[in-house]
Amino acid sequence: MNELDKESLELHEKLKGKIAVRGKVAIKDKKDLSLLYTPGVAAASRAIAQDKEKIYDYTMKGNSVAVISDGSAVLGLGNIGPAGALPVMEGKAMLFNAFAGIDAFPICLQQASVEETIRTIKAIAPVFGGINLEDFKAPECFAIEDGLQDLGIPVMHDDQHGTAIVVLAGLLNALQVAGKKKDQVKIVVNGAGAAGTAIIKLLIEDGFNAGSIIVCDRSGAIHKKRNDINENGSKQELARITNKNNVSGSLKECIAGADIFIGVSSKNVIDKQTVASMNKNAIVFAMANPEPEIMPPDALAGGALVVATGRSDFPNQINNVLAFPGIFRGALDARAKKITMKMKLGAAHALANLVKNPTKDAIIPSAFDRNVVQVVSEAVKKAA
């Protein structure tokens, strides 16, 4: 156990959880009790029963988000189950509050069928103004998110869309630094799960050339002639919309001559020789956590111009905290019923535009830049 792990465990044990539920006002006397609970609370309940929209005026709903997971695909940890996922969801809820003033609550569900998971989330949804899905494994995560779009409140799987938004923002500025155009670059994405799929779809929506994107999984390039993806609908779709030339081969073979590598997979899958085979002024986003697909010094030694990771100890951290607080802040304030593609694109461009003069070591704002939530939420509200 390293020193950081030890210190973190000690802090978690001391705190007994990172968030707490507290009342907004003190109950000092009988008058307070009568106003906040019985008999006064009945007035609020009657008003909501007569007009359901009043729930936003008289309860916590308008500023609340449920952070929901089944622990089947926790970043860097895998399928650790709902109990193991709880510390992560507590942390996510705390970030919602710290960065956007949103009251978020962690809910960890027992792993179940897609249909049962959807039914359960629908059953608890009346309490919340938004649903943040977290760490559900692919391909189930796609069906779960799709099955919740009729709730009348914004629902977003952050592993998909939060990641995609921040990646797009970083890429827009990395292209400026590298002097490349988004419709002319060859991109290799390693990882065909939730994040990889969402990244590809968002890039295509923003004008990147779908045919010049090659997606790789553990078996290599995904293309229309592969006969081992017939039962996986999400990979079938990727084969249809990318890799127009049906390029086949291993990840390292596909990377040769690429302009951009995006890794949402596992550690050490490429080396500096692989990066050296890319085009000049290559862009490498190696985002596996805690250990990336290639460490930044090795990527730079291989000739990469811009390198980003998910880590905080290197420049250009691609972190979802840049996206989800502002997205939900804007969606809640607008009382949006869904998170739309227009909102996601608006959020990505707002993030990119916060970096006025991008350099190879500064393509994305810091998570502690207090302008981030404001500009992202405003972009989402405008799109809504």
What does this structure look like?
- Helices cover 43% and strands 12% of the residues.
- It has helices at 3-15, 30-36, 41-50, 55-58, 81-100, 114-124, 140-146, 158-178, 194-205, 233-241, 251-255, 272-276, 296-301, 324-333, 341-353, 371-383; strands at 64-69, 103-108, 130-133, 155-157, 187-190, 213-217, 220-221, 260-263, 282-286, 304-309.
- The relative contact order is 0.10.
- It folds into two domains: 11-153, 3-Layer(aba) Sandwich (Rossmann fold); 162-309, NAD(P)-binding Rossmann-like Domain (Rossmann fold, 3-Layer(aba) Sandwich), CATH 3.40.50.
- It is α/β, with parallel strands linked by helices.
- The strands form two sheets. Strands 7-6-5-8-9-10 form a six-stranded mixed sheet.
- Helix 8 (158-178) packs across helix 9 (194-205), helix 8 crosses helix 15 (341-353) and helix 15 packs antiparallel against helix 16 (371-383).
Record the SSE blueprint.
Blueprint: H1 3-15, H2 30-36, H3 41-50, H4 55-58, E1 64-69, H5 81-100, E2 103-108, H6 114-124, E3 130-133, H7 140-146, E4 155-157, H8 158-178, E5 187-190, H9 194-205, E6 213-217, E7 220-221, H10 233-241, H11 251-255, E8 260-263, H12 272-276, E9 282-286, H13 296-301, E10 304-309, H14 324-333, H15 341-353, H16 371-383
**Low-confidence region ranges:** none
- Supply the helix-strand structural class: alpha/beta
Overall structural domain count:
2
Q: Give, in spatial order, the strands making up the sheet with the most strands.
A: 7-6-5-8-9-10
Mean pLDDT: 95
Main sheet specs: 6 strands, mixed
Strand and helix order: HHHHEHEHEHEHEHEEHHEHEHEHHH
